[in-house]
C-alpha cells in the first residue's frame, strides 16, 4: 500500500526517506553487498523525515569512539550502529558539519546514572548556549517490568535525547559542536544528532477555541487539564477545533476526546507535559487505581472522528508500570480518526490503542524514548494504517499488533523506521488475520526479540488469512536472548501457543549484518509460509535456525557472508523438507547441530578484539558420546509440559546456559530421556544455568523406579549443580519427576547428565 501521508515538513526543508540515509550505516558496517546494489537495499523504504541524521562516530572528534559492540547492556551496544563517542574530559568534543540548512538540533546522549549537568553547544565556532542533560529518563534496571532501582541490576536503556531551536537558520557547511567545557558534565557519550529546518509556528485557525481561553497557562507548573477538558467540550458543542498555542502546558490527567480536532502550532512549539500527559479516546482501561497511579474514570464505547495534529507530548515517566495508563495516546480511536505529526517522548507507550474499533490513520509521528511499546494495536482493531512514522529507543516492541481475545485484521504497518527497541522486536504481529508489514526499515534491537516477528503468543487469536511481509529491510537485528541464551532471528516465527497455520508471504526482504541467525522457527510448526526474493547479507551464525518444522516454499533466497553454517538443525534431515525448493536459492547448504556457537561477523567481531579461532562452519554429523561419558547428551527427550522457548531438548544440548522449564504452577512434572539403547546408569548430574542471576533453590525430584523423591539444592555459588547417585541400573529410558521448587513454581533443568559410574 502506498503511504497516504508524507511526513510534514516546512517547505524550506528537504525531507529524506530514512531508508536512503540507512545506506551510510550499511557502508559504515563494512558490509559487502553481493546480492543487490546498495542503493536498492533500503531506498524507498522507511519513513520520510524532515531532518538529516549524523552519527557521532563519523563526525570530527577528539573523544573516544566506542564500539562496535553487539552485546546488550553495553553503552556501545545500545548505540545506533553499535558505535558512539565518549567525551571524558574538559575540551573533548564532537563536531558535526551541516549538509543542509538547519535551525535545530536533536541529539541522543548518555550520562552515568543519577547525573545531571550541561554540555556546551557551539555554532560556527561561537558559543551558542549550554544545554541541560539528565539521566532521569534513562538507566532502567531489572528484567520486565523495568524500574529505576539500581538494586535490581541488569542495567539497560542508557540513552535519552534532547532538542533545541538554534534561534536562526544556518547554511550547509556550518560546524555544530557539542563540547565539554569547564563546569559541564563528564563523561558524556554522544550517539548521533538530527538537524532540521523547522518552519515558523503555525497561527490559530479561524474556527477554533484556544485552551488559553479556558484558563490554560503556558510555561508554569499549574495543572491545565481542566482547561483542556473545557476547551474540548466547547469545541465539540460549537463544531470548532481546539487550538494549542505555542508554549508548554502541564496536564494532571488524560484528556478524553470524541469527535473533535485538536491542533497545535507544531511539535517544536506546542508541548504537553506532566506525569499524566495524554490524549485518550473512550474505552480507556482503568489504571492501577491508587494514589500513586491515578486513572481517569472509564468512559465506555469508541471515539470516532478524532483528529490530532501538530503538537508534542513529552511526558515524565521514568519506570514501567503496566497497569498505569501513562501513555501519550490511548483508548479507542476509530471512525476515521487521525494522529499526525506528533512528537511523543518520555511516556510509557507512544500509542496504546484498545479495541475493538475500526478505521484510524497514524502518520508522520516521532515516537522516542518510551518505557514500553512505541505503538500497540491491542485487541480487535481493524483497518488501521500506521505509516511514515519514526521510532527510536522504545522499551518494548516498536510497532505491534496484539490480537488478545479479538483478532486484529486488515491493518498495515508501512514506510516506518523503527530503531533501537531495548526489549523485544522492532515490529511484531501477535495473531490476527490479513495484516501487512511493508516497506519498513528496522535496526539495532537489543534483547528478547528480532527485527520482524510473526507469532501465536500471549493468548492471541491464532494467525489466519494471509499475513504479508513485503519489501522490508532489517539491519543488525536479532539478539542473543538473555533468557534463552541462544540467537533470535532477524525474522522469526514462534508458534508458542500453537502451530502457525495461516498463510504468511515474505517477499523482497533484505536482512543485513544479522547479529545471529537471519530466519528462525521455534516452538510449534509454521505451515504455509512462502519466501520469495530474500537477501541475507551477513549473519553472525546461520541463515536459518530450525527449532520447529516449517512448510511452504522458498524461491530466490540467497545468503552471503554467513558466519557459521547455512542451517542450524537438530531436528533431523527432514526438518526443512516441507519448504519446497522453487529455485534460485543459494548460500545455505551447510548445516550444524550443537551448542550455540560464537557469531562471526564480516565487519566487526561483536566488540571483541580477537576473532573466534574457528570460522569454518561444521557439517552435520550424528552427535557421539563425548569423552566425559555423558550418556544423555543429544539424546531424545520429552517432558510432561514445557514453557514456550524452554523446551526439554535444552536439558540435553550440552549448553548449561539454555534450560528446560515445565508448565508453571502445575506439579508434578516429569522429564524423560531415551538413551536409544539399554545402558547402565548409576549417577546423574543435574544443572541449572551458572549465572548468579539464578538464586539458590531446592527442587524435589524423584528418579522413577530408581530413587525416591528428595530435595536437591542448586546454589550458583557452587556451580548450580546437584548430583544423584544410586546402585547401577540398566535402563533405556529414565524419568525424573519434579514435585516442588523453592525458587520458581516449575521444574527446571539446564542439563541432565547421566553416567555409568
Automatic annotation (TrEMBL):
Transmembrane segments: none
SMART domains noted in UniProt: PbH1 (SM00710)
Ranges for domain F5/8 type C: 620-757
Residue segments, region Disordered: 602-624
Name this polypeptide is given: F5/8 type C domain-containing protein
N-terminal signal peptide: 1-34
High-level lineage: Bacteria, Bacillati, Actinomycetota, Actinomycetes, Pseudonocardiales
InterPro entries found in the cross-reference section: Agl_cat_D2, CBM6-CBM35-CBM36-like_1, FA58C, Galactose-bd-like_sf, PbH1, Pectin_lyas_fold, Pectin_lyase_fold/virulence
Assigned keywords, A-Z: Signal
SUPFAM superfamilies listed in its UniProt record: Galactose-binding domain-like, Pectin lyase-like
Low complexity bias spans: 608-623
Amino acid at each position: 500500500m502506498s503511504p497516504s501521508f508524507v511526513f510534514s515538513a516546512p517547505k524550506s526543508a528537504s525531507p529524506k526517506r530514512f531508508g536512503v540515509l540507512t545506506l551510510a550505516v550499511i557502508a559504515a558496517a563494512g558490509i559487502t553487498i553481493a546480492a543487490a546494489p546498495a542503493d536498492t537495499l533500503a531506498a524507498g523504504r522507511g519513513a520520510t523525515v524532515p531532518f538529516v541524521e549524523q552519527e557521532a562516530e563519523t563526525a570530527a572528534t577528539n573523544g573516544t569512539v566506542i564500539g562496535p559492540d553487539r552485546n546488550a547492556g553495553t553503552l556501545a551496544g545500545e548505540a545506533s550502529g553499535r558505535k558512539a563517542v565518549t567525551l571524558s574530559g574538559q575540551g573533548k568534543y564532537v563536531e558535526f558539519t551541516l549538509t543542509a540548512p538547519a535551525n535545530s538540533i536533536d541529539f541522543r546522549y548518555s550520562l552515568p546514572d543519577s547525573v545531571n549537568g550541561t554540555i556546551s553547544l557551539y555554532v560556527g565556532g561561537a558559543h551558542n548556549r549550554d544545554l541541560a542533560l539528565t539521566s532521569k529518563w534513562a538507566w532502567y534496571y531489572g528484567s520486565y517490568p523495568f524500574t529505576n532501582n539500581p538494586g535490581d541490576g541488569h542495567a539497560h536503556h542508557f540513552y535519552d535525547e534532547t532538542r533545541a531551536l538554534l534561534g536562526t537558520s544556518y547554511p550547509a557547511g556550518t560546524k555544530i559542536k557539542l563540547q565539554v567545557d569547564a563546569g559541564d558534565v563528564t563523561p558524556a557519550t554522544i550517539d548521533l544528532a538530527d538537524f532540521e529546518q523547522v518552519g515558523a509556528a503555525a497561527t490559530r485557525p479561524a474556527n477554533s477555541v484556544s485552551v488559553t481561553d479556558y484558563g490554560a497557562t503556558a510555561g508554569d507548573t499549574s495543572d491545565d487539564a481542566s482547561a483542556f477538558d473545557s476547551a474540548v467540550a466547547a469545541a465539540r458543542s460549537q463544531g470548532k477545533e481546539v487550538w494549542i498555542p505555542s508554549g508548554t502546558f502541564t496536564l494532571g490527567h488524560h484528556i478524553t476526546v470524541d469527535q473533535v480536532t485538536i491542533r497545535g502550532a507544531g511539535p517544536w512549539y506546542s508541548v504537553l507535559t506532566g506525569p499524566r500527559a495524554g490524549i485518550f479516546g473512550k474505552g480507556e482501561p482503568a489504571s492501577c487505581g491508587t494514589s500513586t497511579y491515578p486513572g481517569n474514570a472509564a468512559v465506555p464505547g469508541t471515539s470516532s472522528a478524532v483528529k490530532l495534529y501538530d503538537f508534542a507530548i513529552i511526558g515524565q515517566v521514568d519506570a514501567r508500570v503496566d497497569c498505569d495508563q501513562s501513555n501519550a495516546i490511548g483508548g479507542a480511536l476509530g471512525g476515521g480518526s487521525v494522529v499526525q505529526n506528533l512528537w511523543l517522548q518520555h511516556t510509557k507507550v507512544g500509542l496504546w490503542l484498545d479495541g475493538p474499533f475500526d478505521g484510524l490513520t497514524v502518520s508522520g509521528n516521532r515516537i522516542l524514548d518510551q518505557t514500553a511499546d512505541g505503538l500497540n494495536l491491542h485487541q480487535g482493531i481493524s483497518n488501521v494504517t500506521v505509516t511514515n512514522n519514526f521510532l527510536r529507543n522504545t522499551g518494548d516492541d516498536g510497532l505491534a499488533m496484539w490480537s488478545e481475545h479479538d483478532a486484529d485484521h486488515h491493518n498495515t504497518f508501512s514506510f516506518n523506521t523503527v530503531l533501537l527497541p531495548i526489549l523485544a522486536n522492532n515490529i511484531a504481529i501477535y495473531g490476527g488475520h490479513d495484516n501487512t508489514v511493508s516497506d519498513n526499515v528496522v535496526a539495532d534491537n537489543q534483547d528478547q526479540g528480532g527485527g520482524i516477528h510473526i507469532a501465536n503468543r500471549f493468548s492471541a487469536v491464532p494467525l489466519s488469512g494471509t499475513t504479508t511481509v513485503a519489501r522490508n529491510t532489517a539491519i543488525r537485528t536479532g539478539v542473543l536472548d538473555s533468557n534463552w541464551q541462544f540467537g533470535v532471528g532477524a525474522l522469526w516465527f514462534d508458534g508458542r501457543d500453537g502451530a502457525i497455520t495461516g498463510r504468511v508471504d515474505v517477499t523482497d526482504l533484505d536482512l543485513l549484518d544479522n547479529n545471529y541467525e537471519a530466519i528462525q522457527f521455534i516452538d510449534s510448526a509454521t505451515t504455509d509460509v512462502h519466501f520469495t526474493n530474500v537477501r541475507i547479507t551477513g549473519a553472525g551464525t546461520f541463515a536459518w535456525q530450525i527449532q520447529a518444522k516449517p512448510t511452504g516454499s522458498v524461491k530466490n533466497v540467497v545468503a552471503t557472508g554467513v558466519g557459521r553454517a547455512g542451517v542450524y538443525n537438530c531436528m533431523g534431515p527432514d526438518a526443512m523438507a516441507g519448504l519446497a525448493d522453487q529455485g534460485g536459492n543459494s548460500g545455505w547448504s551447510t548445516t550444524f547441530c550443537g551448542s550455540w556457537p560464537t557469531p562471526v561477523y564480516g565487519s566487526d567481531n561483536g566488540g571483541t578484539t580477537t576473532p573466534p579461532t574457528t570460522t569454518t562452519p561444521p557439517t552435520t554429523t550424528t552427535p557421539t558420546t563425548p569423552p566425559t561419558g555423558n550418556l544423555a547428551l543429544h539424546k531424545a527427550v520429552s517432558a510432561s509440559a514445557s514453557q514456550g522457548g524452554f523446551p526439554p531438548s535444552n536439558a540435553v544440548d550440552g549448553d548449561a546456559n539454555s534450560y528446560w522449564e515445565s508448565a508453571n504452577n502445575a506439579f508434578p512434572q516429569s522429564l524423560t530421556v531415551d538413551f536409544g539403547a539399554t545402558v547402565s546408569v548409576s549417577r546423574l548430574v543435574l544443572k541449572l544455568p551458572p549465572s548468579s542471576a539464578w538464586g539458590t533453590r531446592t527442587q524435589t525430584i524423584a528418579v522413577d523406579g530408581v530413587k525416591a523423591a528428595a530435595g536437591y539444592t542448586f546454589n550458583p555459588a557452587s556451580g548450580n549443580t546437584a548430583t544423584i547417585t544410586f546402585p547401577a541400573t540398566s535402563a533405556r529410558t529414565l524419568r525424573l519427576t519434579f514435585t516442588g521448587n523453592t525458587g520458581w513454581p516449575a521444574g527446571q533443568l539446564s542439563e541432565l547428565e547421566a553416567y555409568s559410574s
